[in-house]
Amino acid sequence: MSSAEEKFETKEGTPSSEDERYIHKVSVPPKQKLFQEIKSGVKETFFPDDPLRSFKDQTNRRKFILGIRAVFPILEWGRDYNISKFRGDVIAGLTIASLCIPQDIGYAKLANLPPEYGLYSSFVPPLIYALMGSSRDIAIGPVAVVSLLLGAMLQTEIDSATNAEEYRRLVFTATFFAGITQTTLGVLRLGFLIDFLSHAAIVGFMGGAAITIALQQLKGFLGIKNFTKKTDIISVMQSVFGTMQHGWNWQTIVIAATFLCFLLLAKFIGKRNKKLFWVPAIAPLISVVLSTLLVYLTRADKQGVAIVKHIKKGINPPSVKDLYFSDQHLLKGLKIGAVAGMVALTEAVAIGRTFAAMKDYQIDGNKEMVAMGVMNVVGSMTSCYVATGSFSRSAVNYMAGCQTAVSNIVMSLVVVLTLAFITPLFKYTPNAILSAIIINAVINLVDLHAAKLIWKIDKFDFVACMGAFLGVIFFSVEMGLLIAVSISFAKILLQVTRPRTALLGKIPRTTVYRNIHQYPEATKVPGVLIVRVDSAIYFSNSNYIKERILRWLVDEEELTKESYQNKIQFLIVEMSPVTDIDTSGIHALEELNGSLKKREIQLILANPGPVVIHKLHASEFADLIGQDHIFLTVADAVSSCSPKIMNDV
Amino acid sequence: MSSAEEKFETKEGTPSSEDERYIHKVSVPPKQKLFQEIKSGVKETFFPDDPLRSFKDQTNRRKFILGIRAVFPILEWGRDYNISKFRGDVIAGLTIASLCIPQDIGYAKLANLPPEYGLYSSFVPPLIYALMGSSRDIAIGPVAVVSLLLGAMLQTEIDSATNAEEYRRLVFTATFFAGITQTTLGVLRLGFLIDFLSHAAIVGFMGGAAITIALQQLKGFLGIKNFTKKTDIISVMQSVFGTMQHGWNWQTIVIAATFLCFLLLAKFIGKRNKKLFWVPAIAPLISVVLSTLLVYLTRADKQGVAIVKHIKKGINPPSVKDLYFSDQHLLKGLKIGAVAGMVALTEAVAIGRTFAAMKDYQIDGNKEMVAMGVMNVVGSMTSCYVATGSFSRSAVNYMAGCQTAVSNIVMSLVVVLTLAFITPLFKYTPNAILSAIIINAVINLVDLHAAKLIWKIDKFDFVACMGAFLGVIFFSVEMGLLIAVSISFAKILLQVTRPRTALLGKIPRTTVYRNIHQYPEATKVPGVLIVRVDSAIYFSNSNYIKERILRWLVDEEELTKESYQNKIQFLIVEMSPVTDIDTSGIHALEELNGSLKKREIQLILANPGPVVIHKLHASEFADLIGQDHIFLTVADAVSSCSPKIMNDV
């Protein structure tokens, strides 16, 4: 029975023998010139989005204008800007400003900086981003995770308490290099590097960081004075319970707990009714105002309730001269900045993509990176620390109906007014309220739903997720990050060293051959073993693939021996999924062919792709096994073996 | 016209509607238990060769015996050992001994060690390997590349000239850790790690190392006294030509050149007539004997011909107490040992595999690593430095008709007799002759033919090859190695971030859909875009794949607009090559589906594999696009769209 023949009995009638020969042949596509080949490779790697498409066939003047617009998207969308959009942006900008002011003050503390630096970082970076960024919904400013990461890494280098001035200078240096890293990645179009942090690892890392941040807030929440500088859960718990007898302050706890309940209630209301999104958005500012008034009126600070005391009035002082370019600080700043910059990017790009997908517009990842980078470089010169897109504020921005990056400008202006006039009013704001606000903000980062889904879909991903999570909680933020990256890489390496292979069988009444593990009804062809290799054959897996195919063969031969079936005489390798092969791969095929020859088994290839068939010819392997042993489909290959097996029976 | 219908008009007649439904469905294989899933994953990763297969269904006593035999393969093959095999082994052993003695003396110099250490390393390690190794053809001992690598890396830590004692101790420490590294890799079954050095990178690295070694020999060859300690070609050339006026010794050059010609002639004879393989094999020893006599008789050493002078008599002294376990030396030894151990392994495993393939027996890579590791650990305690399999001597061993590892034992005994009695006779051996022997040995490592083939097959591989080659020659051995590893990794990363995708078309008169780039005769289906994704969809490429598919769509829509064709209404993603998908991949599909919905295009999947279909169900993505939009083949998928498109026209 020949399966291939069946196929040709179509409505068009029986094909002539010429057609049949034509159809069976595996085409070798026209050979590309070397330069062409390299060019298309480079293009696909670095410019998959074809960013120069719109520049094609334009005059030089027009190209220049398009180039300027590409760098400053505001010139693009600014042309259609109108009053109705402006209204949306103003409302959104005011909402996120009310949310960001208390958050900024708290986040600055996570980075071991005085509170005003959080506000500084919500002034300059959003303005720069509004000019250069392409996301319409992202809200720029300091974020919890990056603040914590930066604080934890810098603290191990310089003690912020005893050496505040030097510490601050190192912060700016790190911020500068974070910006340089981001810009470089964008300009060199290496944006894909951040894709190496898997979704699962990010979920775990964010969850762990959120819990670590929340635990850090117990200091402010419980009014503890002597708190550990470490971030792992064990040290923190020792700090917390070691001070229980005489270190907690009940007035502080009452204020913190009350307002935390208020914030959670506001969040609950916002979740129940999407129209009331502004309730949780302004709740933090209301808490700050109420609690400040309360402390001022009751003079609770005299009862041991810690207060902010002093926020420097006035806008950002310049900090260009504070950047450290001496030997040792340069290296530290570079290292810490690069890590913080990458993490910040990961967060920003994820946010940008999420909202772009919701409103269905395109974001150019590499362009975003350049915008982020420039904004942080400028930030480092104007007393800002690393800013990026904030999950919580971006969501509020989106729900409040922002239309463009103008909402960031509005927010920035509110922040600058705050810095210029209102900061003295924060004197009596209790630290406890900032802690409550941060706890309320970060618990959203613990995404149990996502973790559950990861568990359901991919167990290995779950291991990566939990590894990052536990690494952050039990060791340190950096350790968690390292674990996340390592597990992500391990997965990639596993993928390329241990690709899958499958035995194929014929699905009844079709000429389709499928994995017999998936389709138990598929039947093997007697005397023929059909193996599909599910990956490009490269040096990292060529040896494994060769040995795996031989093992399939040995297993099958044992089976046929037991059941007195035909001896295997043909091994068909289905190569559809084999997109590429390198010199090691060709070697492996040659060795496989040698082993098969010794066992008197003929190697047959089915459907090699364009790149592979090229290389099979270039290496003369095609001649080695015989051109007539390469077929378009498995069905054709099987039909070519069938008559021979008949004869042997 | 419905393609799927065609397929059912087979010899078996028109199928009933029940059959049709049955055939179209994509099977979801029975869900594996979590434990089962993890178990099979671990097994495939670490035990792809199923090493415990023979232990199945055996009594405990039998299992124990099998276990002992697995560790000491000599107990396995020793049982069938007979006198005819012994004859082959003795001849081969004597031949490789005559080859190894002069080589060892020269290689020890590459490692900056006194000559006797080369001989020591040809005594103990081959004995251990004979007990534990599973290759029958490999010849164990010091090799040129590892000697050079070890010498170069250790020299940067401790100067061997001024601090010989400390240097020697660090050599043993590094050897110890090389052995530990090898054993660990074998025991943890991480043998696949050495597969990460690609064939191309090895060819380049070996070629570069060979040229570097040959250049180093110019010192002995030209009789130069003050020679650079650096290994890069520029320093060496400066050394060579800087001393041309008064540093060269013509008597030395005459001796060296004469015997090099003799060696090359012998090699030429051996190549022309395979039966005369022993001519090049014993030529080095003959050269040593003749040149030693010549120098002794003419007292050429008084004319400035450098001679060996002194080789310590007697067998290996113990060196357990010389191992350094103090803080700083431990780390240096560990680092250098790990690198040298990995490189030694790469060479040994490549040799083992090559000869195993030629004689068609199996080699267990992980077991080999344990054998190599134990042999080097024992070696480090008996004054040996890192030993491994030698390309040139293994080839001679093979051609001399070795049958088992007994040839290594024979060689080892000859070496020990040499150490015990003959070393004083080497006193007048000119260094020049050792240089000639090494030059003659290493030029074989420059594999121009392989480099040419690599160029023909894969340009990227060629870049890796040349990178390693030039790195070794112009910078240092370590730098070359680093370049080789980096380029190999870059290739893997590119593979997983930028997988290929292809547009499919229908090949005339079949129901087969193939890449229209490879098969220009394939025709697109109006209103339907068929894209094949050629890789597992993971976090590292999910975003790229999503955007690439959308770009295919945009390009296609522009084309249809120009030619007034049907608007695209269906996007079929052929998933046959997609062997796995993770949570990021599912997200990307969801986003793709969202974008398509906005454009009123229906997403259809064809032939998802067992793992993928599972995850599509687990994540409920299958329900999102509709179960009836997942088909077994592209043909089925197309036939389901066709009637709808007809209606719209």
From TrEMBL, chains A, B:
UniProt-annotated location(s): Membrane
An example Gene Ontology molecular-function term: secondary active sulfate transmembrane transporter activity
NCBIfam families membership: sulP (TIGR00815)
Family affiliation: Belongs to the SLC26A/SulP transporter (TC 2.A.53) family.
Domain STAS: 518-641
Protein name, UniProt field: Sulfate transporter 1.3-like
Membrane topology according to the record: Multi-pass membrane protein
Organism for this UniProt entry: Cucurbita maxima
UniProt keyword terms in alphabetical order: Membrane, Transmembrane, Transmembrane helix, Transport
